[in-house]
């Protein structure tokens, strides 16, 4: 009986990627002590790992590992700035927008300085940058600070996010491909990004040319579910064809 339950728990965590202990207790109708014992078995097996407030699936290594924010921030600055500027042009007065933690999204804030709107984010850098602009209402998501991504993360954030109606979501990704969609390398970020996609009306992907054809640890959104792709260089023909088929608007900044 217990062995079968542990197998079901493993399968559930693999599907969800990141799950809180409370959710597991409710899903499998067992106590927290029982769940902890079952999780220990899966940790020993090497298929899951414990994170703050829950457990995440331990997937095989990808071709694109997580790079600390400070290293990513210094790469392709000019290209990322033009992408941010183009993305900001889609924001209208009164919009409730989500700005992702990726470095490609950061400069959006400067171009939104005089557009009265609400920004929801879990990015420490975006929060600090937006403070100086009184026309911007800022909602920072709760959680602990992940220093690799300079973002607030935690199992409670997806539930918190679902209380907001996001009109436009501006997302970044570690890699983007037709097969794997929008991917990222952080288990902590996965559930947050996935919830934003599910709870937003219009979705923008901000991606420089180096991200195409790459993939990271987890897919948080199929490419077909975005409405706009903003990039610095015209993508390969297969991406142009795919976007045309799925009615995705491509905006190239140069």
Report on the structure:
- By secondary structure, the protein is an alpha/beta fold.
- Helices cover 35% and strands 25% of the residues.
- A seven-stranded parallel sheet has the order 6-5-4-9-12-14-15, sandwiched between helices. The protein has a three-stranded antiparallel sheet with strand order 1-3-2.
- Helix 1 (2-16) packs across helix 3 and helix 2 packs across helix 3 (32-45).
- The longest helix is centred in the first third of the chain and has 15 residues, at 2-16.
- It is globular, with a radius of gyration of 19 Å.
Brief account:
The chain has 254 residues and is an alpha/beta fold.
Q: Walk across the major sheet and give the strand order.
A: 6-5-4-9-12-14-15
Please give the count of helices. Answer: 10
Describe the biggest sheet? 7 strands, parallel
What fraction of the residues are assigned to beta strands by DSSP? 15-25%
Helix and strand composition category: alpha/beta
Gross geometry: globular
- What is the H-and-E element order? HEHHEEHHEHEHEEEHEEEHEEEHE
What's the number of extended β-strand segments?
Answer: 15
Radius of gyration: 19 Å
Summarize model confidence as the mean pLDDT: 88
Question: Which segments are poorly predicted (pLDDT under 50) over 5 or more consecutive residues?
Answer: none
Estimated helix fraction: 25-40%
- C-alpha end-to-end distance: 60 Å
């Amino acid at each position: 009986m217990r062995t079968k339950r542990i197998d079901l728990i493993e399968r559930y965590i693999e599907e969800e990627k990141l799950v809180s202990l409370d959710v597991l207790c409710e899903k499998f109708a067992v106590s927290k002590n029982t769940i902890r014992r079952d999780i220990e078995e899966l940790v020993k097996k090497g298929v899951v790992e414990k994170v703050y407030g829950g457990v995440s699936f331990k997937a095989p290594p990808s071709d694109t590992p997580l790079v600390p924010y400070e290293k990513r921030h210094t790469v392709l600055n000019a290209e990322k700035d033009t992408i941010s500027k183009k993305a900001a042009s889609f924001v209208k007065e009164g919009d409730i927008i989500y700005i992702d933690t990726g470095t490609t999204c950061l400069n959006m804030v400067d171009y939104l300085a005089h557009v009265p709107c609400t920004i929801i984010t879990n990015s420490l850098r975006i929060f600090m940058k937006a403070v100086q602009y009184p026309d911007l209402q800022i909602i920072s998501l709760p959680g602990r600070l992940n220093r690799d991504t300079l973002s607030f993360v935690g199992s409670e954030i997806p539930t918190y996010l679902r209380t907001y109606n996001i009109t436009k979501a501006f997302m970044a990704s570690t890699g983007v491909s037709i097969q794997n969609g929008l991917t990222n390398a952080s288990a902590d970020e996965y559930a947050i990004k996935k919830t934003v996609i599910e709870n937003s009306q219009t979705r923008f992907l901000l991606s420089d040319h180096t991200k195409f054809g790459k993939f990271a640890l987890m897919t948080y959104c199929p490419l077909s579910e975005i409405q706009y792709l903003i990039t610095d260089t015209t993508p390969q023909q297969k991406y142009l064809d795919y976007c045309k088929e799925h009615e995705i608007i491509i905006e190239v900044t140069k």
